[in-house]
Amino acid sequence: MEGLKIPLLFSSLFSVLIVSNAADTITKTHTINGSNTIVSSGGSFEMGFFSPGNSRNQYLGIWYKKISVRTVVWVANRENPLVDSSGVIKIIDPGILALVGGTGNIIWAANVTRSTQDTVAKIMDSGNLVVKDANDDNPEHFLWQSFDYPGGTLLPGMKLGKNFVTGLESKLSSWKSSDDPAEGEFTYWCDPRGYPQFILSVNSTKLYRTGPWNGIGFSTTRDLNNPIYTSELVFTTEEVYFSFETQSSMVSRFDLSHNGVVQRWTWIDRTQEWVLYRTSPRDNCDNYNLCGVNGMCNVRNSPVCGCLSKFVPQNQTEWGYGDWSNGCVRRTPLDCQNGDGFLKYSGDLLPDTRYSWFNKITTLRECEKLCLDNCSCTAFTNLDVRRGGSGCLLWFDELIDMKLYSENGQDIYIRVASSELGNLMHNSKHCYTYKSQKEDLELPLFDLAVIANSTNNFSINNKLGEGGFGPVYKGILEEEEEIAVKRLSNNSSQGLDEFKNEVVCIAKLQHRNLVKLLGCCIQEEEKFGYMSPEYAVDGLFSIKSDVFSFGVLVLEIVSGKRNRDFFHHHLNLLGHAWRLYNENRSLELIDEPQRDSCYLTEVLRSIHVGLLCVQQRPEDRPTMSSVVLMLGGEGALPQPRKPGFFAERNLLETGCSLSKDATT
User: Fold this and answer.
1) DSSP string of 209-231, one letter each residue
2) Are 559 and 566 in contact, with CB atoms under 8 Å apart?
3) What mean pLDDT comes out for the span 416-431?
4) Residues 65, 250: Cα–Cα separation, whole Å
C-alpha cells in the first residue's frame, strides 16, 4: 500500500459550487439550497451542496472554508444523492433537520429522538453540525450532532469509539471512490472486547490493528503528544473512545481513504498543500496476523516471519515455502502444576487483546503472580508504560499478530515451560520468572520538561522551602498527583554521585513518617551548541538559530562524526553532506556500522531535514514545530539550499572565526 500514499492526496478534495453568506444557522425561516451556504462563526468551516470529482450528483456536505484546496470532511446524504440542484436543507415539523428533494420527498434527516419549540441547526467552528434549541448552547443538551456520525474523516474533538449506555458506535467508513461518498468496503472502528484496540477491516476481515493504548499512544503509531498535537484514549464503564486535539493554528485531520489506508494529514500554509504525516498500515508486518499464532514479524529480517523463542513452526514445509498462516507451536508443552516461567521480549507490538483481562492499579509483580496462578494465562505486561510502568494486562489465548519494533515497542512476558528456561530460572536479564531472585531496585526517571511543567518552571510561588543542597518545590503531575521536587543547587557541594547515592538510599527507606520517593531526574548541565551564521557574523539570534544547531546535531548523529573534527577533501561535515546530497549519494553519509541495521528511508529523511535546518538564511530554515512534523511524517519535503558555513577546511577551521566576506 506504500505506493498509494501520494495519489490519495486528492481522494477527498472536491470543487464546491457556491458562494457563501455570513450566517451559521439554519432556522425554520432560513434554509440552504443550491445557491447559498452557512459558515461557522470563526470562518473555519462551510456547509452547502457540492458535486465530488466528475460526478453530477449533488450532496450536502461540510468542508474547510479557509483552505484553498477544497476538502470535504462530512457528507449527509452519502447513500442518497440528489440528481439535480433542487434540494433544500431546512427545519421541518416537529423540529427535524431534513434534506428535502424537489418533489418534497425527504432525502436525509437527522436522527433526533426529541424536539424543542425553537429548533435550529448550527455549524460550529470545530466543523460539528449540531441540532439544538436556539436558546441552549449546552453541548449536553444537543439534540443531534454530526460528530457522532463521522464519514471518512476524523476531526479534532471528534470521538471515535463506542458509548456503552446509548449503544452509539462512531467509526470511520471509506468512500466507494473519489467520486462517490457512499459507504465503501473499509471500516476503522474500536473493538472494546478485552482491552480496547482499533481495527481496520474490509467487510468482516481484519486488515490492521493499532495495538492497545499504553498510556502514551498506540504501539503501532508515532503520534506522541507534543505542544502542537495531543491524543487520548478514554475508557470508562460508560464509553470508550479515541480523540485528538491540535494547536489552534494547526489544521490536521485523519482520513480513511477509499483504498483502505488510514492517513493523518496536516495543512501547510506556506506551501498551500496537505502534507501526509502518517499512514497505516505502513509495512508488510502491519498486515494482520501475517505470521500466524505465536509468530513474530520483523521487517528487517528475510523472511519477515519467525517463531517466538522456544516455539517452532507448526508445519515446517509450509513455513519454508513462505506460508506462515498456521503459525508456531510450543517446543515443550506447558506444565502449570509443576511450575512455568516467563521469557521477556522487548520492543514488541503487543498481541491481539480481544481475549485479554486488565487492571489499572496492579503492579507488574502482582501481574506476574496473577498470570502464573491461572493456567490459561499465556502472557502479561504493564498496561501503562509511563513512570516505570503500572497496571496489568493478561492474555488468555494464543498470541496473535505480534511485531518487533526498533522503537515505541513494549515489553511482554510470555509463558513457557520451566524446563525451557534451564539455568536462566535464577538469574537472567532476559528472563522474568516467579522463581527469580529479588531484582535490584528500579526507580522511574522523569524528564526535566515534565518536572519543570509540574512546578510552573520552578516558580517562586511553588517553592516550599530550601535545604542545604537546594530548594524544594510543590508540583502537580498531569495525572493530578501532587509531588514535592527537590532541585539540586548549582552552589551545592553535592555532586552527581552523591545525588545518586542519596536517591538510592531514600528509595530503600520505608517509614510511616516518610513520603514515598516516586522517581528522580538526572539531567546533566547544558551543552554548548553550534553557532548559526547570522549569530557568528552579525550577533543576531532568533529561534531559527537553535534550528541551525539542531540540524548540525542531526547530521553528526547520522554520520557518527563531529562537525569540528570532520574533514573530507577539505570539506567540513555540512559541506560534505551537501555535496553527497546533490550527487544523490546521501547513503554514503550514514555511519558505516549502522547502514545494515537502520531504516534507510527514515535516515535519508533525517539527512534531508538536517540540511533544511542548516540553510544559510534563517528565513529558509523550518521552525522546530515543522521539523517535528517533517521527521515524523512521510510527505514530500522542500529542496534544501546551500548550508551556512559551507566552507573548505582551509578557509574555516573552527566554525566561529568567520568574517562576512567568507560567508557563502
Assistant:
1) E---B-SSSBTT-----BTTEEE
2) yes
3) 56
4) 14
Q: What are φ and ψ of residue 509, in 5° steps? A: -75, 140
Residue 110: strand, helix, or coil: coil
Cell numbers representing residue 241 in the block: 473512545
What does the alpha-carbon distance between residue 442 and residue 364 come to, in Å, rounded to a whole number?
12
The number of C-alpha atoms within 13 Å of 493 and in the hemisphere containing its C-beta is 1
Block residue for cell numbers 511553588: 462
- Residue written as grid cell 486535539: 245
- Report the chain's mean pLDDT, rounded to a whole number: 82
Residue 662 identity: A
The size of the chain, in residues, is: 664
Omega of the bond leading into 643 within 30 degrees of 0 (cis): no
Taking 80 as the threshold, does the pLDDT of residue 507 lie above it?
no
Q: What is the structure's pLDDT at 573?
A: 87
For the chain, domains (ranges, CATH) are 1-149 (2.90.10.10), 153-282 (no CATH), 285-425 (no CATH), 448-508 (3.30.200.20), 533-662 (1.10.510.10)
Of the pLDDT bands very low, low, confident and very high (cuts 50, 70, 90), residue 540 is: confident
Confidence of residue 366 (pLDDT cuts 50, 70, 90): very high
SS3 107: strand
pLDDT band at residue 595 under the 50/70/90 scheme: confident
CB-based burial of residue 574 (10 Å sphere; 0-12 exposed, 13-18 middle, 19+ buried)?
buried
- The yes-or-no verdict on residue 281 having pLDDT over 60 is yes
